[in-house]
Specification:
This protein has 14 helices and 14 strands. The N terminus is likely disordered. The structure holds pyridoxal-5'-phosphate (PLP).
Length: 412
C-alpha cells in the first residue's frame, strides 16, 4: 500500500499506465513537497510575532535567523532577504559587477536573469559533463576586457571546483560570487559552503529542503560588503529619513524567519530522510541499463535534496522524455531540471544565437529529477523505481506509445 492509499502492482508491461495500466499513484507525487518542521513551534512563533506586532523590517526572528545561519556556516555575516533572486541581484550590484559575467547555462534561469535584469550580459560557459558544474577549463577563453566576474553555481548541492575558480578569478582580477541556492548544508573539502568567493547566495524557497516559504540570504566574510547589502535591501536607509545608497525592498518578513527558524530545528531530520531516500534510490535503480543516478560525495556534508538520474538513450532503448511521459502517466511528476539550459531560453536564445555548449546540451537532454523529501516514503520510492525499470525493459513499446500520443496531440 502506498501513502496515497492504493497498491498498484507494476510487474508486466501492461501494468504501465502509459501502456494502458492503472496509474500507480492516485495523487500526484511531486519531486519535492515542502518540508514542514514542528507545527506547534511554528504556530507559537506566529503568535509571538503577532503579539509583538513586529511583522517585518529586521525584526527579532530575522535577526535570530541570520545569526543561526551564519553560525552554522561559519561565516561572519548573513544578510537575510525575501528570496534568492533578489539576493543575487543585490549581491551582484554590491560587488559592482558590470559588463559581462561568466555563468553556467545549466542552472535555474534566475542566475542569468539576476544579471540581465541589471543589464549585465551573462556569458554562458559550458559544464563538466561528469559533475554538471562550471568547467574551469572553459572559462578563460570567455574572459574579455568587459568581464567583471564569475558566478559559480553549486548545482544539486554539489560544490563547484572552488579552488580552480578562485585561482582564475584572482589571476584576472575578477569578482567571484557563488549561487549556492541549492547548497545549504553542503561542504567543500570539509568546509561549509557559504564562506567561499566574495559572497554566496542561499535560497529558502518552499521547494528547498529548508524553507522559509520564500526566502534567501547572502553570506559573506566581507564586512563592508555586508553593510552595503544591508542598506541596499532596505531602500538605502541608514536611519530614519536618511538615505545613503540606492536600494530596493529585499527584506525578509518575520513570518518567513519564523518558518526558517522552525525548519532549522528539524534540519538534521530533513537531511536524514533525504539521505535515506537517496540510498534507497541507489539500491532500487542499480543495474537498470542506461540509468545512472548522480552521486554525492559521502566524505562531504550534503543535503541530498535532489535525486537526479541520467538516461543514456542508446543503452536504455528509451529517451529521457519518454521516461518522463511514462512516469507522468503514473502520476509521478518527474522534472527535467534544468532543461533546456538558459542559453536556449529567452531573451538569451535571441541575444546569443551562436553560443555552443555541447556538454550543457548533452546533460540537459539526459537528466530527470525524481521525488524525494519527507513526503516520500520507502514504498513510493520502490514503486517509482519499478516503473523506471519496467519502462526501460519495455522501452520500444513505451517509445512507440509516447510517439503515437504526441502525433494525435499534434493532429488536434
Ligand atoms: C540555482 C538557483 N538559483 C536561484 C534560485 C532562485 O531562488 P528563489 O526562488 O529563492 O528566488 C534557485 C531556485 O530554485 C536556484 O535553484
Amino acid at each position: 500500500m502506498n501513502l496515497s492509499g492504493r497498491s498498484v502492482a507494476k510487474e508486466v508491461a501492461a501494468d504501465l499506465a502509459v501502456l494502458g495500466g492503472a496509474p500507480a499513484f492516485a495523487e500526484p507525487l511531486h519531486i519535492g513537497r515542502p518540508n514542514i518542521g514542528d507545527r506547534e513551534r511554528l504556530l507559537a512563533r506566529f503568535n509571538d510575532l503577532l503579539d509583538r506586532r513586529w511583522l517585518t523590517n529586521a525584526g527579532p526572528y530575522v535577526q535570530e535567523f541570520e545569526t543561526r545561519i551564519a553560525e552554522r556556516l561559519g561565516v561572519a555575516h548573513c544578510v537575510a532577504m525575501c528570496n534568492a533572486t533578489i539576493a543575487l541581484e543585490i549581491a551582484i550590484r554590491a560587488l559592482d559587477l558590470r559588463g559581462e559575467v561568466i555563468v553556467p547555462s545549466f542552472t535555474f534561469v534566475a542566475t542569468a536573469h539576476a544579471l540581465q535584469w541589471q543589464e549585465i550580459s551573462p556569458v554562458f560557459c559550458d559544464i563538466d559533463p561528469c559533475t554538471h558544474l562550471l568547467d574551469p577549463a572553459c572559462i578563460e577563453e570567455l574572459i574579455t576586457p568587459r568581464t567583471s566576474g564569475i558566478i559559480g553555481v553549486h548545482l544539486w548541492g554539489r560544490a563547484c571546483d572552488v579552488d580552480a575558480l578562485a585561482e582564475i578569478a584572482q589571476r584576472h582580477g575578477l569578482r567571484l560570487l557563488f549561487d549556492a541556492a541549492p547548497a545549504f548544508g553542503c561542504s567543500y573539502r570539509g568546509r561549509m559552503i557559504g564562506g567561499f568567493g566574495h559572497a554566496e547566495v542561499l535560497s529558502f524557497h518552499a521547494t528547498k529542503f529548508l524553507n522559509s516559504f520564500e526566502g534567501g540570504a547572502v553570506v559573506t566574510d566581507d564586512h563592508a560588503l555586508a553593510e552595503r547589502m544591508r542598506l541596499m535591501k532596505n531602500f538605502g536607509f541608514a536611519d530614519y529619513d536618511e538615505v545613503v545608497h540606492v536600494g530596493t525592498n529585499g527584506k525578509m518578513t518575520e513570518v518567513a524567519a519564523a518558518m526558517g527558524l522552525t525548519s532549522l530545528e528539524s534540519l538534521d531530520e530533513f537531511i536524514g530522510v533525504n539521505q535515506r531516500n537517496y540510498r534507497l534510490y541507489r539500491q532500487h535503480l542499480a543495474g537498470i541499463p542506461g540509468v545512472t543516478q548522480l552521486s554525492y560525495d559521502e566524505g562531504e556534508a550534503n543535503n541530498y535534496q535532489y535525486i537526479v538520474i541520467e538516461l543514456d538513450e542508446a543503452v536504455a532503448g528509451l529517451s529521457r522524455d519518454a521516461l518522463q511521459a511514462a512516469l507522468q502517466a503514473e502520476n509521478v511528476l518527474a522534472r527535467r531540471y534544468f532543461y533546456p539550459g538558459c542559453h536556449r531560453m529567452e531573451p538569451y536564445r535571441s541575444r546569443f544565437p551562436h553560443v555552443l555548449l555541447p556538454a550543457t546540451d548533452r546533460v540537459a537532454s539526459r537528466v530527470l529529477t525524481l521525488p524525494t523529501g519527507t513526503a516520500v516514503g520507502p514504498e513510493e520510492i520502490a514503486t517509482v523505481c519499478r516503473i523506471v525499470r519496467l519502462a526501460v525493459e519495455y522501452g520500444a513499446q513505451v517509445m512507440d506509445r509516447v510517439r503515437d500520443r504526441r502525433k494525435s496531440l499534434d493532429a488536434v
